[in-house]
Amino acid sequence: MHSETYPRATLVSGETPLTHLPSLSEDLGIDLFIKRDDVAGSPLGGNKARQLEFYLGAARAQGADTILITGAVQSNFVRTAAYAAASLGMKSVVQLEERVPERDGIYHTSGNVLLLRMLGAEIMHYPEGEDEAGADAALRARAEALRSEGRVPYVIPLGLENPPLGALGYVRAGREIVASGQAFDVVVVASGSGATHTGLLTGLRAAGSTARVIGSCVRRPKAQQEARIRRVLELLSELTEDTRAVAAEDVQIWDGALAPGYGQVGEAASEAMAMMAGREGILLDPVYTAKSFAAIPALCRAGEIAKGARVLFVHTGGLAALFGYQSDLEGGLPVLG
């Protein structure tokens, strides 16, 4: 089976821009491009819109009237799901997990949290940030309660035991990149839940691209993330034959910008944000895109990305989270020479 055989709710109309970054290309000695998935889907959208097309397609096929999803307090996935549900005439129940320690009131009320309230989502809270099974169980318990009220809920799960329907959105995106006619030596993307990374790798390979695909860790260290990506690929193989084009050595992980941890702003992420904003006028968020873009200058300096290489950075969005990190950023980003 292929991604086109699954029900899909159209949230991303048309292709997202794929453009050259001239200033950073000159600075880094490479030919650098950006895939602007930060403009996919809803306002302040991002990669989650592509994933949600397949989850909400399945939900509509089952006659669902309510979407349930779990994620971090400033989760872009959760906020985008609430937007998508509202746009399709559905209700949303969102569960916010405490994944980032010692955050202030701004983090818990601004950014994506504010948007959730504006979208009319029902908000639940879960005290643990590293308990995927428990978070999913809490959602399913709420779904059962909704069924008893006559509602038709659909749970978008988090744990690895579930079919990664969202990855199908990035199988499509990988094919979209190849169909653009642009060929790349290296593609860099954020690697978190694994759906975007595995889907993109699968789509690129299935469409004939031999580009080295590097997943930059945003939540777990390299060894843990590599194991997760391999597991998601196994699960994705049950949904689509496209994974047959992926070899074991195609799974490549970099975690040089992960510190000090998920949802926390480190030096590498701060420098990446300053570099992209100051040289290209494009904003990155501190949780995903700053930590993923940071891989490119670091690997260029290390000689792991060759001079003159054609490199694609996949901007997965998430800019609403910027406002939740006001306390971290109000001192300003580093001035880079």
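(the above was protein one; protein two follows)
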Amino acid sequence: MPEMPQVQALVDFLDARLVHRVTPDGETLDGGAHVTGVSLGSFAVLKTAVPPLDAIAGAEITGVARFGKYIDLDCDGVHLVFHLARAGWLRWLTNPPARPLRPGKSPVALRLEVDGASDGGVGFELTEAGTKKALAVYVVDDPMDVHGLATLGPEALTLSASDFAGMLAGHRGQIKGLLRDQSIIAGIGNAYSDEILHAAKLSPFAIAAKLPDEEVGRLYTAMHTTLDAAIAASAGKPAAELKDSKRSSMAVHGRTGETCPVCGDTVREVSFADSSLQYCPTCQTGGKPLADRRTSKFLK
């Protein structure tokens, strides 16, 4: 799943091609690219009915913004908002599509075609792999009309240390869940919560409200350093390279059975019904593997 660093990189990528356009000679172009067509490859992906999808046809793209893990394209005041979910991605198009989209016949959920992209591209497609479909697209007059976006908590990197400590003090659940809860902190998902907890040397099952001040401070610092590094690593990369960039930068997430780069222990995994987490026992749990997938107890 793309998380805040990769979503921000996608926003920057689209902004440079669709809004703040510059020619290869460095000349700034006036205005944004225009939408020449928009079509669905999956009717289920569109979660709104009013305005209709074709309300953005012919519109100038005047802005691209990020809210948590949502991307918002401002099309002359009508907003195309999308969330890539776990298996979604954005594929930039440099050649005209060979044929119209046929719903249900490909992994393409939506195609947006444009005229005037700064690199000669013709638009982008939103794709989704697998059978569990969660990618969501909204056409709205105001981004805040999207419920999931309107209920987002503050962005992770905008939180002050004192506000962060206050959030933890009032949360009696596990710290892993708090970091992933978009209504509490926006932008962090399964992967970067693993990485932040590893950097902070904390168990994913530690109870947020019970963390001593020193550990709260360590977690706050780890959140900033981990996300800042990921943003820097993603910056300037084309959309096609962002997935591999994310994977290559991970210390523990997605590395079950591999060697922890900090201490040399073996990275372990805890599996749940629809997800898993990775951690290092030596770095995070006093050398003891976590007992099972739904409790914070340790194996004896």
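Reviewer note on protein two: The radius of gyration is 21 Å.
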